[in-house]
Each structure stands twice: as C-alpha cells, then as structure tokens.
Write a structure and sequence with these properties.
It is built from 4 helices and 8 strands, in the order E-E-H-H-E-E-E-E-H-E-E-H. By secondary structure, it is α+β, with helices and mostly antiparallel strands.
C-alpha cells in the first residue's frame, strides 16, 4: 500500500509530521509521521462506484425481496449474499479513503500503527540493530522483457519496479514502506536516522 499512501519526507510538512519531546528525557525525541490520503481524483472514482452500486441496489431490490419469500434455503442464501454485498461494498470502498499508516521512531524503536476510520487495527514494533539500520532496496518482481529485447518502440513499456525501505532487526530485514521514487525513501531514511 505504500505506493498509494505516501509518508512525508521532511519535518516542514507539519500537517503530517510531529516531534514529541519526552518529559523524562528531554534529549530523546519521538518523530511521528502519518501517511497522506488518496489524491482527490480518487474521490470521483468513489462517487462513480457508489452511483453504480446504488443503481444495482435499486434494480435488484424487488428481486431480493422475492427471493427471501421462497422456502428454499439456497435462494434465501443467495438473496442475503447479494444484499450484504451491496451494503458492505460502499463501507469497504470508503475504508480505503480513511486508511492511515502512522510511523513513530524513538531511538532504536520503530512502531507502525495501521488505522481505518481513525481506529488502530494492527501494530508492528521493530527494534533496530543500530540507529542507521535502515536500507533502501530496489524491487522488481517480474523480468523486464521490454529492456531485455532492447527495442526502441518498447522503451515506454519498461518495468522500472519500485523501491522499499527496510529495517534490520535481529538480523532480519523488515519492510517499513515502499515508493516509486528512491529519492523520497532516502529522505525518509535520513529523517528517521536523526531521531
């Protein structure tokens, strides 16, 4: 999800970053980074999807009620399945717009918090091997056929892959974030290494 939900890369992005001082140890500070939401164009995609789902609901409403009147359990099950799908799909789609990933780093500890509708649902704690135990690696999951054939007409179809920010913890490499731009992940790495 890191390719769509992007972390800020500097402290100047004050709406998504925060520096917290520890009362017991004023030298030790915590940096808190929160991902940006989806771009505004995605809201129009959501509106179009909700219009289609609403139309499907109106078109199938009488058929669903008729299926529920039958005594056959398979027909009733089908009616409930369609009904719950048409009800839950808008909430699931809306959840993508209220998904947020929060990264907190204090010393050698990184805490990742995943939230939907501002409610945390998953936590990941990482203890780094050292303060600079972060690396940016290139990732490409499929062979770059356009580059292998080296044809100028295929130049625009080259798979460039993406980059991943990894943390070394206990000798294991743990994925923190991914991005299409290496420069942004390098800035994020520098920012995290300061705290």
């Amino acid at each position: 999800m890191g390719l769509m939900y992007i972390f800020p890369v500097s402290i100047e992005e004050s709406d998504r970053t925060e520096i917290i001082s520890n009362n017991k140890d004023p030298i030790r500070k915590t940096v808190v980074l929160k991902t940006y939401g989806l771009p505004m164009v995605f809201w129009s995609y959501l509106a179009a999807s909700l219009i289609v789902i609403g139309t499907m609901w109106l078109a199938s409403k009488s058929a669903i009620h008729k299926l529920l009147t039958y005594e056959d359990a398979s027909l009733q099950g089908l009616a409930y399945l369609v009904q719950f799908t048409l009800i839950l799909t808008p909430f699931i789609l809306l959840g993508f717009f209220f998904y947020e990933k929060e990264l907190r780093k204090t010393g050698l500890e990184i805490k990742l918090v995943y939230k939907v509708f501002f409610i945390p649902f998953y936590f990941k704690n990482i203890i780094l091997d050292s303060n600079d135990a972060l690396s940016v690696d290139h990732f490409m999951d499929s062979p770059n056929m356009a580059k292998i054939h080296n044809v100028s007409e295929l130049k625009h179809f080259e798979n460039k892959g993406y980059f991943e920010l990894h943390a070394m913890s206990g000798g294991k490499s743990i994925l923190i974030d991914r991005h299409t731009r290496k420069a942004d992940l390098l800035k994020l790495k520098e920012l995290l290494c300061k705290y």
